[in-house]
Amino acid sequence: MRRLRACLGAAAAVGLAAAGTTALVAGSASGATSALSNRWYAAAPYLMPLDNDPPDPASIMDATGLKAFQLAFVLAPNGGGCSPTWGGTAAVSSDTAVQSVVNTIRAKGGDVSVSIGGYGGTKLGQVCSDAAATAAAYQQVITKYGLHAIDFDLEEPEYENTAAIKNEIGAAKILQQNNPELYVSVTTAGTADGTGWFGKQMLLEAKSQGFTPNNFSIMPFDGGFNGAASQTGALTNFNQILQSTFGWDQATAYAHEGFSGMNGRSDTGEFFAQTDFQTVLDYATSHNMDRFTFWSLNRDRQCTPADNGGRTSGTCSSVAQNSWDFAKYSVKFAGATPPSSTPTPTPTPTPPSTGCKPAWSSTAVYTVGNEVSYNNHNWKAKWWTQNETPVASDWGVWQDEGAC
């Protein structure tokens, strides 16, 4: 679904100087620091370190408090073969440019995850002979950068290939077994129903192989979405898919569920502003979801006035913003407080109401915007809910509209 990854931006070699500390990961000495908490890896936004006018990660860290970055994307070589490259062109084995970015981040106390796959390009699961060979290719990436986290971004065209998905899921399971404490996320396309047929087949493949990552994340954009309400609806539906597929209860499914959004204007012309991110963040935290991330930091800055809103860009958001506004939502999800130099938009206060709305019912289903009364107060639903008692809470489903 992330078409911008394949078609926007010119390759730009990054030469950032810094020295990382040394640690042992999976039996390999590299520039890895001690692992961050899983919450940070779950909150890491995507960053293309070699394309789409890469921003300076150190500046983002200083401005937002962000500690973790999701570097994208590792692919098979454009000329063929089962070895990892950045974007199909830069061999991981001889890389120094991305390593320099990693060192810069780690020198400031942060860390990285690496994302494999993405939209377009040839994936290693498509060309490697089997799951073991696919895993061996990815192990080179883990060893090279001393990774504590990795993301399998399984979407078009790979997730339409049954054999490729079998290789990718099998490789993920092998890496999980061979690298203790490795944080593994699996990201796939989102639809209004949660995910589509190919996404469901991917989940069934994981079930058949007995593989459970830290989370399965969906990307609710580029599919006719319209703001946060449609996204939280998709997350609710995806939770039900996880329950039915794996036999989990609702809480367990949410604990293995993630959100991967797109800041600003999407490939298909949808718009997701800061207020949408806040609504989805509230949903994710109130449901104890495992992951909240977005595509991408390269886009987390203002476009020029001539371009703002008129096109989808790989280097800016096409919505009004200060630089790194969207990154601060990831920082909040990780449990940290961002610096206050860039204010986060807040909802317009709702005027007090004098008349009571219809009484809240524990059996009724409410969707975003529905109003009820309870304990002599009116309440407005922020997202889909049933049998959640109205109560004042920053993270809850109900917004208190005042006494009635």
Indicate the proportion of strand residues: 15-25%
**Morphology:** globular
So what's the oligomer here?
A: single chain
What characterizes the major β-sheet? 10 strands, mixed
Overall helicity: 25-40%
- Which class best fits the helix and strand makeup? alpha/beta
Unreliable runs:
5-30, 342-353
Mean pLDDT across the residues is: 88
- The first-to-last residue Cα distance is 46 Å
Count of runs of 4 or more consecutive helical residues: 12
Summarize the structure.
The chain is 31% helix and 19% strand. By secondary structure, the protein is an alpha/beta fold. The protein is globular and about 70 Å long.
Attribute tags:
single chain; 404 residues; alpha/beta; 3-stranded antiparallel sheet; 12 helices; 31% helix; 19% strand; globular
